[in-house]
Design a protein that fits this description.
The structure holds two protein chains of two kinds. Chain A has three helices and eight strands. In chain A, strand 6 and strand 7 form a beta hairpin. Chain A is elongated, with a radius of gyration of 22 Å. Chain B is elongated and about 40 Å long. The chains are: A alpha+beta, B mainly alpha. Chains A and B meet through helix 1, strand 3, strand 4 and strand 5 of A and helix 1 and helix 2 of B. Chain B: It comes from Cyprinus carpio carpio. Chain B: It catalyses: a 1,2-diacyl-sn-glycero-3-phosphate(in) = a 1,2-diacyl-sn-glycero-3-phosphate(out).
């Protein structure tokens, strides 16, 4: 399989280029690992030797088929704006499946970094065939997220994993927002996801489904961020207009009194 | 945005408003003062913990540390 040559963001090596994913917006680069590759989480990385041969046929093998996905995106807004928006990302019209967000814990560590643990309640938009396997009433998924904001280094890092359906699928995501290395008025988002699915007969189908869902959700996620940023800017403008209006009234009164 | 516990949504909104204001105006600007939202968080957190237990959500390794601050040694 040809490897996709391109700048490596993480230690993960780009394993397979998927030609269909080449048709992307120019500012986003996606890399896919093929479903036939199998490796455990600890040996997926640069220099890892992948077991040769076909995919595992044993249903209950501990080695799970995995798909690795990475992406990079640039926001034309400074890091502080993007971080504020990311903290208030939900609700937004692009991610209707997230119906609840709760803060479980929050604290500032000795280095002045803010740690937050959050619980996201989501409703998977699964196709009916998958729903009929899992069960119609059990499509509510919970995700636990740990995030760290470092205001000195200007990084906002989020890691999340599903805490339900773990016997079937595991989706670990990591997002890092930092100022663009070449333009401090812009922000770079690097995202990665590791998906592992147990079982064989549906694993490739489910993996492909999940990978394309993650990709499409990532696109929606970025649109969602732009939406939140616009909303925050509108609120600030409205506040400024109100403040100016409030100031003008006493000033006008003072002038007319003269 | 709703809370996982239906009865906690209002408490969550109050806490979120307080936190978002402190986060944007103080924390991100390098102000190291503690956030003024501890009481609100306590009320909200108690409600959420109850809802999580009731719904049997397998939350991992969260001990209530609350909005404690560990101030850096000056």
């Amino acid at each position: 399989m040809r490897t996709f040559s391109g700048r490596e963001i993480f230690p993960f090596r780009a394993l397979v280029s998927d030609w269909s994913t080449r048709a992307l917006r120019w500012c986003v680069r996606h890399r896919w690992a093929g479903p036939e590759r199998q490796c455990s989480r600890t040996n997926c990385g640069s220099g890892a030797v992948f077991p040769s041969g076909s995919r595992a046929l044993n249903l209950y093998n501990t080695t799970r088929a995995m798909k690795i996905w990475t992406s990079e995106h640039v926001f034309n807004h400074p890091w502080e704006t993007v971080t504020k928006a990311a903290m208030q990302k939900y609700p937004n019209p692009m991610n209707p499946s997230v119906f609840g967000v709760d803060v479980l814990d929050r604290n500032v560590d000795r280095q002045g970094r803010l740690h937050s643990k959050r619980l996201l309640s989501t409703e998977w938009g699964l196709p009916s065939i998958v729903r009929s396997i899992i069960g119609n009433t059990r499509t509510c998924t919970y995700i636990q997220e740990h995030s760290v904001v470092d205001p000195k280094e200007k990084t906002f890092e989020l890691q999340s994993t599903n805490i339900t359906f773990t016997n079937m699928v595991s989706v670990d995501e990591r997002l890092v927002y930092r100022p663009h290395p070449e333009d401090p008025e812009k922000t770079m988002l690097t995202q990665e996801a590791i998906i592992s699915v147990k079982g064989v007969s549906l694993s490739s189908y489910l993996e492909g489904l999940m990978a394309s869902t993650i990709s499409s959700n990532a696109g929606k996620g970025r649109e969602a961020m732009e939406w939140v940023i616009r909303r925050l800017n509108t609120e600030i403008e409205e506040l400024a207009i109100t403040a100016r209006g409030t100031l003008r009234t006493p000033m006008a009164a003072a002038v007319t009194e003269k | 945005m709703n809370s996982v516990g239906e009865g906690c949504t209002e408490l969550k909104r109050e806490y979120d408003q307080c936190f978002n204001r402190w986060f944007a105006e103080k924390f991100l600007k390098g102000d190291r003062s503690a956030d003024p939202c501890s009481e609100l968080f306590l009320k909200y957190h108690t409600c959420v913990q109850k809802a999580i237990k009731e719904k049997d959500i397998p939350v991992e390794g969260v001990e209530f540390m609350g909005p404690n601050r560990e101030k850096a040694d000056s």
